[in-house]
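User: I need a structural model of Amidase from Lachnellula suecica for a docking pre-check later this week. Nothing fancy, just the predicted structure tokens so I can convert them on my end. Input:
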Amino acid sequence: MSVLFTSISQDNPVKKDDVQILLDKLGVVIDPKEVSDFHMLLAAVHECAAQIQELPDYQPTPDRVRYPREGIHRPSKQEQFSGQAWAHKFLIRGSHEPGLLSGKTICLKDVIAVADVPQLYGTDVFAPWTPTTDATVVTRVLDAGADVVGTTTCENLCHSTSSFTSAQGPVDNPFHAGFSAGGSTSGGAAVVGGGLVDVAIGTDQGGSIRIPASFCGCVGFKATHGLVPYTGISSGNAIDDHAGLLSRNLVDPALCLDAISGYDGIDDRSLGAPAPGATTFTKCMQAEPDRLDGFKIGILVEGFKHHMVDQGVREVVLAAAEGFARIGATVEEVSVPDHSRGPALWTIQQRIAGGQTLLGHQHGRRGLYLTELEQGRLPWTTESFQSCFAATKNVIINGLYLMDHFPGLYGKAINLGRQLRDSYEAVFEQYDVIIMPTAPIVAPRHGTTSKDGSPLDALKPSMGITINTAVFNVTGHPAMSIPVGVASSLTEPQVLLPVGMQIVGGLWKEGKVLRAGYAWENAHDWRLGIVN
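Assistant: Understood. Predicted structure tokens for Amidase:
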């Protein structure tokens, strides 16, 4: 402590009144006899902060010699797809050495850091910022031979499962213009579903990979929490966030998982993951590509009976479940009564942790912090708050309210989330995977932003969409959406759109999820009935 005192400068800006001003925010009063001492201690910590502030940041250095960035630019109107699916186009050529992903093209959600590529984050709340580092997943796909061809639009600060909220413009469903591509990995799902790119790497905090996959006829895979390092990816809520993949088939995500999985020495989410290069998902998945003999699949009753699940979607997914039986699996109903509690638990976690993240109060995790982004979006002002999409305003308001009125609730929600995780794990002792609809409906038409209407009007198209997805962000289980057929739009019955089936496995049991999906894919053509 004496070292701190000796470093206090004469021009230190901390005043005695600052001590009580800070405590006023808590509604508490300091003993007047203690003010001088705590003023000295506060001045000392200011000196520490100023010293650290002056130091250069420490971020991984990308290999620009081996992987130069070519042609970084905002796409022209002629280059765009499905509305505004692309954020930036460029080319980073993958390793010339043969690898798992040689010949594959990859796009990245516009929250995944690529050095020298401006990141829009789907917003105009703050100016685009330019990372100085590459996310771990970027380095790993390049090392595996893939070419990275651009970043794709995400929804406004990743706070929507719709695809009309980005400040850069709406993203259309590749099957029908004017309909949602899902969010928040909207652009990635559109360009993959439309056949432009082999794989999109996205993020999933409550369904942000699986919902777009369901709407756009893609495979969307969220692995066990921590299997894929989150290093270099901006996080809304570090407990719920997952990195994952979208593709048009099951082989590509298996190859990608083999390439990008494993602890990277930075992200503490991945401390329990296998060593990089140790997984063999592709090989194991392809060992028995056509049969599921001895496999037990549970139809999760609660996942089908929710009042929001459209009858057409329910029928398509139940018919797909019968397909598992035809290739040798045992298929029967199972129940996890607490499944319906998942959305409420997710809401509490996300509103409190997500609100604190937006306010710059991240703490408690070892990993890479994207300090340029934090400097760009802080501090909040009335102008920046008012320019937010309604969902972001709601996260901040909800988070502040919950911390004020329900002290300790966050910790209880985390504990109950672990209880829910254990309920599923008990089921996975008897069943290899469980299935349910990914989204309760097919893609709806675009809504309107809060600038054109009320906040509720802006939020309605996303309400209830994650009833079957967000719960597995709370529990961390591997969950994948695969396309299994088509159903009619709720508002325009003549419009047929993709239906996704969610396949969920036990913790660290990605192999079972992939095997179930791959066998179903090999035995069926979900596209029958699609009308463009």
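Before docking, keep this in mind: The chain is about 35% helix and 15% strand.
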